[in-house]
Specification:
mainly alpha; GIY-YIG endonuclease; 3-stranded antiparallel β-sheet; 51% helix
Length: 257
């Protein structure tokens, strides 16, 4: 009973102390940072409604003892207003990784978001991963939604068939004929660079276009495809020209979304 009384007393103190800040918070998405009396960030959170979320820490008792202890240590709070809930999600993730607040770790609230990686290897693979590592690969993200990433990768797969295997595709290994065609080639998901059926230059050109898409430079990719379409049509390669036209249409549809 005594703990409840102390807890209520501390909550009242906290609410009174931050009443001015909380009353001026907007009903919009954002990120909030709690600091202790030494000015160290002890917790970072996101909110769909900043005013409602922040005030909830001070106007009710918490079942979780760690949350109660954290609230008692809050000496200052710093809100950051953003445009959307997705922006809040990404900003929260970046700030947590940067500052490593004590209570985010204790409360297991540091989330891992999806990234798209272009592997640092011969004939690079492109796929989704959660935790980037410093291995020379190129990472794009973080994304707020796994669904978004999977949709993006499905588009990439349709536009530019790439290998998904983990074979060591060095020029020497390919020249020695160490690899055989697999099912992915036969169903059209890969152009078989493992047997030299796709050149390194052609593969790298695809990676360059994928990189532009991931950077948001979709207009540049569309222009590239239209140029190829016209070049194929001029030399009567109508099937290839039709393929470029279809790819352009897919990108136009994706961009409009």
């Amino acid at each position: 009973m005594r703990l409840c009384i102390i807890g209520d007393f501390m909550l009242t103190l906290g609410m009174n102390k931050f009443q001015n800040i909380i009353s001026n918070l907007p009903d919009s998405p954002g990120v909030y940072q709690f600091l202790n009396d030494e000015g160290t960030i002890i917790y970072i959170g996101k909110a769909k409604n900043l005013k409602k979320r922040v005030s909830s820490y001070f106007n009710k008792m918490h079942d979780n003892l760690k949350v109660t202890l954290m609230v008692n240590k809050i000496a200052d709070l710093q809100p950051i207003v953003v445009d959307t809930e997705s922006d809040a999600l990404l900003l929260e993730n970046n700030l947590i990784k940067k500052y490593q607040p004590r209570y985010n770790i204790m409360l297991k609230d540091d989330k891992s978001f999806p990234w798209v990686v272009i592997r640092n290897e011969d004939f690079p693979r492109v796929y989704l991963m959660r935790n980037p590592v410093r291995d020379g690969s190129q990472y794009f993200g973080p994304y707020a939604s796994v669904v978004t990433v999977r949709t993006l990768l499905e588009l990439v797969k349709q536009l530019y068939p790439l290998r998904t295997c983990s074979l060591n595709l060095t020029e020497e290994n390919i020249a020695r004929g160490k690899f055989k065609l697999c099912l992915e080639y036969h169903i059209g998901n890969c152009k078989a660079p493992c047997e030299g059926l796709q050149t390194k230059k052609d593969y790298d050109d695809s990676i360059d276009q994928i990189r532009n898409i991931l950077k948001g430079k979709i207009t540049m990719v569309i222009q590239h495809l239209k140029t190829l379409m016209n070049e194929y049509a001029e030399v009567y390669r109508f099937e290839d020209a039709e393929l470029m036209k279809n790819k352009t249409a897919m990108l136009e549809k994706f961009r409009s979304k």
